[in-house]
Every structure is written in structure tokens, then in C-alpha cells.
């Protein structure tokens, strides 16, 4: 079981492709909101899950294979955005989601969400992005160096955990406590999860989001961007560009927040997501 400190949130699992896939959820009925993570895990969504459920929604924050609390292991081939998008479709089937589904994505999970919308517009009823990769905003420099397999192979466990500790501490900004940083780091103690993370980093490529732009420009699906405006890598300027170029997009800026704004302003973000997904 993961650490769940929010009232009414539970962690459960389902079999997908023979792997035990873990996800956080809250509530019993109501419209599903599928929440996708990127280079972190479902923990990024924990602060907003209870409020979404109390508003009548049923949030489902899944851990991709090999990441967070899920079984399995990602490879360079299975960690690409298009392949992860296909996997999300199989996960949705496994948890018996039907019809158009509301989707939210953080970081690379936002690229997967954009891919789902661009390639099957009828499957996504509404799209929310939180400090997502867009256009050519990624991979960030500390991830781009890992595109070299030799560099990725040479990283020791201690070096990996030290680098992720620094990243988590930075990305949490004012919400960074020792306990919270430790919670975020916990899955990466497992070598299998570290390998999966390195695969996701190694598969990172901005062509996956750049290729989606023409379809997104034609999209009439409602979209919401929520952005920690001090993010040093997924800069708010990219969100501003997206909101100007992509139809039916609203941008909400979160001041004094960086890459994981759900930890800095959970109530405000939960309210914004609720208003958007229940409109």
C-alpha cells in the first residue's frame, strides 16, 4: 500500500498486460477523471483527490507500468508517448471505463493526454494539463543527458537518488518538507523502478508533442491549463503560447509554485479542476 494521507483516498490495483497496475482513487460513483503522471508518479495527484471526489467526481490516478507502486517495467520501446497512450487505453478498459473520459496530465503524462485527444478526439471529453510538456519544451537538460544510454547505465543508485532528491525538493518549492520529499522518493529505492524511470527519460522526445500541434489546433474539446508559474523547465511561456494557439483553452497561473503546484495550492487547483470537469 502507498502512503495515503488524504481522507477517503484508497490505493487499489488491476491487471493490465499481466502486470499489477496500481492506482489511487476516491469516491464511488460519478464521472471518472483519469489522472496521468510523468517523471514522478500518482503521488502528484494525491492532494486534490478528496476534493474531486467530494464534488461528485471519481478520480483515478494511475501509476504507469514500472513506476510508482505498479508492477512491470518500462523499456525504451514501451516508454514512448504513443505506446504509453495505447497502454492507457488498455488500462481504461481494465477498470471498465466506457465512453468519453475526462483526462488530466502532469509532465510527460500531459503529452500522453494530448496524444489521446489528438488521435481519438471522441475518447476524451475534456483535457486538463498541469505543468505539462508541450511543443519543444522537453526534455529538460537534466533528463536530456540521460538520452545517452552509456550515461544512464553509469548512474549509481546513490547518484540517482541524490539527483531525484534535488529535483523533488526544487519542484515542490515551498511545500518541500523532509517527510514529503521522502514520500516522493520512496518508489525509486527499487532498482526496477529506477530502470523504468531511466527508460522514460531515455524515450523523451519533443517530436511527440510537436507532431500533435496540427490536430490540437483543430480540436474543439475544452482544455484547461494549470501552471506553477515559477517552473524552471516547463515554463509558463509555453502554457501562454498553448492557450493562445489551441482552441477552447483556459490558463490558470499558480504563483509561487514550480513543477508540482498541486502540493502548493491543492484547494485552489482542486476547485479549478472540479469547475472544469463538472461544467
Describe this structure in words.
The protein has helices spanning 46-54, 81-94, 108-119, 141-144, 149-154, 157-172, 178-185, 191-202, 207-210, 213-218, 236-245, 261-264, 266-277; strands spanning 10-16, 19-25, 32-36, 58-62, 101-107, 124-132, 223-228, 249-254. It is globular, with a radius of gyration of 17 Å. The model is unreliable at 1-5 (pLDDT under 50). The longest helix is centred in the middle third of the chain and has 16 residues, at 157-172. The protein has 279 residues and is α/β, with parallel strands linked by helices. 42% of the residues lie in helices and 19% in strands. It contains 13 helices and eight strands. The protein starts with 9 loop residues before the first strand and ends with a helix. Helix 1 (46-54) packs across helix 13 (266-277), helix 2 crosses helix 3 and helix 6 (157-172) packs across helix 7. Strands 1-2-4-3-5-6-7-8 form an eight-stranded mixed beta sheet, with helices on both faces.
Assign the structural class, choosing from mainly alpha, mainly beta, alpha/beta, alpha+beta, or little secondary structure. alpha/beta
**Low-pLDDT sequence parts:** 1-5
What is the chain-wise order of helices and strands? EEEHEHEHEHHHHHHHEHEHH
Main sheet?
8 strands, mixed
SS element count, helices? 13
Q: What is the strand content? A: 15-25%
Mean pLDDT: 95
Round the Cα radius of gyration to an integer and report it.
17 Å
Q: Indicate the overall shape.
A: globular
How would you write the strand order of the largest sheet? 1-2-4-3-5-6-7-8
Distance between the termini: 34 Å
Q: Give the helix proportion (percent range).
A: 40-55%
Strand tally, please? 8
Amino acid at each position: 500500500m502507498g502512503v495515503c494521507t488524504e481522507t477517503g483516498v484508497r490505493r487499489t490495483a488491476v491487471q493490465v498486460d499481466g502486470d499489477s497496475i496500481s492506482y489511487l482513487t476516491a469516491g464511488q460513483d460519478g464521472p471518472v477523471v483519469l489522472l496521468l503522471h510523468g517523471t514522478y508518479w500518482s503521488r502528484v495527484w494525491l492532494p486534490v483527490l478528496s476534493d474531486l471526489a467530494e464534488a461528485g467526481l471519481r478520480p483515478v490516478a494511475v501509476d504507469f507500468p514500472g513506476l510508482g507502486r505498479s508492477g512491470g517495467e518500462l523499456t525504451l520501446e514501451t516508454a514512448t508517448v504513443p505506446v504509453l497512450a495505447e497502454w492507457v487505453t488498455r488500462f481504461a478498459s481494465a477498470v471498465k471505463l466506457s465512453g468519453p473520459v475526462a483526462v488530466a496530465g502532469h509532465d510527460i503524462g500531459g503529452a500522453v493526454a494530448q496524444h489521446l485527444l489528438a488521435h481519438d478526439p471522441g475518447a476524451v471529453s475534456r483535457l486538463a494539463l498541469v505543468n505539462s510538456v508541450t511543443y519543444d519544451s522537453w526534455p529538460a537538460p537534466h533528463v536530456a543527458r540521460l538520452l545517452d544510454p552509456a550515461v544512464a547505465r553509469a548512474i549509481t543508485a546513490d547518484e540517482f537518488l541524490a539527483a531525484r532528491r534535488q529535483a523533488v525538493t526544487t519542484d515542490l518549492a515551498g511545500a518541500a518538507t523532509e517527510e514529503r520529499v521522502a514520500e516522493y522518493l520512496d518508489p525509486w529505492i527499487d532498482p526496477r523502478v529506477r530502470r523504468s524511470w531511466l527508460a522514460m527519460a531515455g524515450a523523451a522526445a519533443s517530436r511527440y508533442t510537436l507532431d500533435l500541434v496540427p490536430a490540437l489546433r483543430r480540436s474543439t474539446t475544452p482544455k484547461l491549463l494549470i501552471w506553477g508559474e515559477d517552473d524552471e523547465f516547463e515554463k509558463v511561456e509555453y502554457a501562454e503560447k498553448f492557450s493562445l494557439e489551441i482552441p477552447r483553452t483556459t490558463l490558470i497561473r499558480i504563483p509561487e509554485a514550480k513543477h508540482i503546484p498541486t502540493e502548493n495550492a491543492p484547494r485552489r487547483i482542486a476547485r479549478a479542476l472540479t469547475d472544469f470537469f463538472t461544467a
